[in-house]
């Protein structure tokens, strides 16, 4: 995802005169790293994306969620200029895409729909070929950049092996290394943990955290909701080509908060006491007592349990997991 720049790119002379260095896009402060407005994509009679408005906030880690066929990959391809919208507009680092994509793409690393490399070349040789297409790398910088990327994704020991002998997880790692050959302002990862073992999944989580700490924006699509909840600051949920929810993950979860969760060793006594006071109380899947909204306020519930001699480890507002929120958003959408 790193074509050579055309005359829309801004360039300045490199210090060694070898290859010009590109100046980063000068998008206004506070503008999103990527955005679509009224985005629609139709393939024949199939509407893959239907009138979506979405901002990817600069500096965020945005998780794009949705069942298979929800339009995630098509939307990502439109944002990267890989496919032209049937209707609507897309911008990448302040530049309209696909028309001015070459001005932004050198500052974007992407792994979309799985990596594609030459099967009879080694991982290192494939990565060197990819590095030669990087406008931000001079020839003398390529060897060090390749080795750094290989080490970062844990492929140093396998770098000399032919790509055709790589496992699915190793191929994913090499694709991720290609996306990280140079520092990026935006990194787009489409199902980056596909085929990875738990150690590889932890590596991806670590890399995403490093990118975020370094100020980069990360857009990641994934079916692993626990990973999204652990790594993402924002989410966008798609269903049948439509955007059903988007925003800061913490706010979306807090907006869906309901009830009080009480952790106690005296479950039976707590349930008797609460129900006797007219509260709706039940056990959740983790064995905690949940008190539904609509009954006595939280301070009265806690005081009631204390007076009844019920021991408590914790009392907190109920906050659903992303898995619950995702199921609720998608199960009722046609």
From TrEMBL:
SUPFAM superfamilies (UniProt xref): P-loop containing nucleoside triphosphate hydrolases
InterPro entries (UniProt xref): AAA+_ATPase, ABC_transporter-like_ATP-bd, ABC_transporter-like_CS, P-loop_NTPase
Keywords, sorted A to Z: ATP-binding, Nucleotide-binding, Transport
Annotated stretches, region: Disordered: 1-33
Pfam families xrefs: ABC_tran
Gene3D superfamilies from the UniProt entry: P-loop containing nucleotide triphosphate hydrolases
Record bears the keyword Amino-acid biosynthesis: no
Molecular-function GO terms, alphabetical: ATP binding; ATP hydrolysis activity
Domain ABC transporter positions: 34-265
Entry's family note: Belongs to the ABC transporter superfamily.
Protein name in UniProt: Multidrug ABC transporter ATP-binding protein
Native source species: Pseudonocardia asaccharolytica DSM 44247 = NBRC 16224
């Amino acid at each position: 995802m790193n074509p050579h720049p055309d005359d829309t790119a801004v360039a300045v002379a490199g210090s060694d005169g070898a290859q010009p260095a590109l100046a980063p896009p000068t998008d206004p402060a506070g503008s999103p790293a990527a955005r679509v407005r009224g985005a629609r994509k139709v393939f024949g009679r199939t509407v893959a994306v239907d009138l979506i408005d979405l901002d990817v906030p600069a500096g965020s880690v945005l998780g794009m969620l949705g069942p298979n066929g929800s339009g995630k990959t098509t939307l990502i391809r439109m944002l990267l200029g890989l496919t032209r919208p049937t209707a609507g507009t897309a911008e990448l680092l302040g530049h309209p895409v696909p028309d001015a994509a070459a001005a932004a793409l050198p500052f974007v690393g992407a792994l979309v729909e799985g990596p594609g490399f030459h099967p009879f070349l080694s991982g290192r040789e494939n990565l060197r070929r990819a590095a030669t297409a990087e406008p931000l790398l001079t020839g003398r910088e390529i060897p060090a950049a390749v080795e750094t990327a290989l080490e970062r994704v844990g492929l140093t020991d396998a770098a000399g092996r032919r790509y055709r002998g790589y496992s699915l997880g190793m191929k994913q790692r090499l694709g991720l290394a290609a996306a990280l050959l140079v520092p990026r302002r935006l990194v787009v990862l489409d199902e980056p943990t596909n085929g990875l073992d738990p150690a590889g999944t932890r590596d991806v989580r670590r890399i995403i955290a490093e990118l975020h700490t370094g100020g980069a924006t990360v857009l990641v699509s994934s079916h692993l909701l626990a990973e999204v909840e652990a790594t993402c600051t924002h989410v966008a949920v798609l269903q049948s080509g439509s955007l059903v929810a988007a925003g800061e993950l913490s706010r979306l979860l807090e907006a869906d908060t309901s009830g009080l969760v009480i952790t106690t060793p005296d479950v039976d006594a707590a349930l008797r006491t609460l129900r006797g006071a007219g509260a709706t109380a039940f056990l959740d899947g983790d064995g905690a007592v949940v008190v539904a909204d609509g009954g006595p306020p939280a301070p009265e519930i806690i005081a009631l349990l204390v007076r009844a001699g019920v021991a408590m480890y914790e009392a907190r507002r109920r906050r659903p997991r992303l898995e619950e929120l995702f199921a609720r958003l998608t199960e009722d959408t046609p």
